[in-house]
Amino acid sequence: MLTYTIRRLVLAVPTLLFISFAIFMLLQLAPGDPMAQVPLTVPPEVKQQMREALGLGEPPLVQYWKWLVQVFWIEPQVFIDWVTRESWLLGWLPDTQLYQNELRVISWQTRSPVMDIVIQRLPQTMWVVGLAYVVGVLIALPIGVYSAYRQYSVFDQAGTFVTMIGFSIPPFFTGPLLIVIFSVSLGWFPSIYDTTHVVNDWASFKVQLQQMVMPVMVLALQTTAQISRYMRASMLDNLGADYVRTARAKGLSEAVVVTIHVLRNSMIPVVTVIALGVPAIFGGAIITENVFKVNGIGQLLITALFANDLPMVMTLTFIFAFLIVMFNLIADVLYGVLDPRIRYD
């Protein structure tokens, strides 16, 4: 397993390089001009100087190479210096902070380092997306187990109906629907997520929970719908297996048979689905964050797209691609750990 993991990590490097190059070339072909928002009163020669200052006058391959150096060489050094609170790697520069900012990936829209903005927005996304995924998984697993054990019961049919709704309705419809019901009609929850809210006592904590309820519900609905169906199908495959009949014939209680034997084997494919679903939930958060005005990474990507901020879009899409590649590796490793019969060597 260790050899397989190392081999996959080595293979991930050219994979990510190819993905980054494909993303970069697609963004180069995309319509739009970062100078479109510049006032018309600005002379053309000034616009050209601004374009050259952003690096747009260089060939695309040169721009891509500079981005690679910034992301894979400069940014890790900046991160290590930030963690250690010392200028170990870039301390040789005459003015470390100034030159770091010049060498890093800079947003065209804000003229600030892209990774600094991402780190500022990341906690908001993790609060909503992370909690939604955990809630969705915790709800989906028992629903899938009980639906399979009570196949074709009222609970199973109701769960199937609800999960089909969760599959069918997209977040851009579920979000406004919840706002109309719970914010406009009932007035239970705020319709806008206040990212400036500070939690310092029990009252402020309750306010934080209230504003998180609806975005978490929207994201958790899709997670619950997907994972519960996988859990149900996996449980049904194992409930009719020979080893289950043997365990019952030995006199084991039904609770032991279901929870120890059936559930453990059924979790093997479901765990891989849970791992592979982590990048997908970040993608779903793009719509949800814009609906509820959550000042996170999803909203940052949409804002950068409208502003033609190519460095920001390039970096964020690469982060999503990195998550997909890494969680695919994690899913494969977990599959081998949970099932001793599987060997990748």
TrEMBL record:
This protein's superkingdom? Bacteria
An example GO BP is: transmembrane transport
Q: Which Pfam families match?
A: BPD_transp_1, BPD_transp_1_N
Keywords annotated in UniProt: Cell membrane, Membrane, Transmembrane, Transmembrane helix, Transport
Q: Show the SUPFAM superfamilies listed in the entry.
A: MetI-like
Organism equals Roseivivax halotolerans
Stretches that traverse the bilayer:
9-30, 125-149, 161-189, 209-227, 270-292, 312-338
Give every ABC transmembrane type-1 domain span. Answer: 122-331
Protein name, as recorded: Peptide/nickel transport system permease protein
> How does this protein sit in the membrane?
Multi-pass membrane protein
Where, per UniProt, does this protein localize?
Answer: Cell membrane
Supply one GO CC term from the record: plasma membrane
Tell me the protein family, please: Belongs to the binding-protein-dependent transport system permease family.
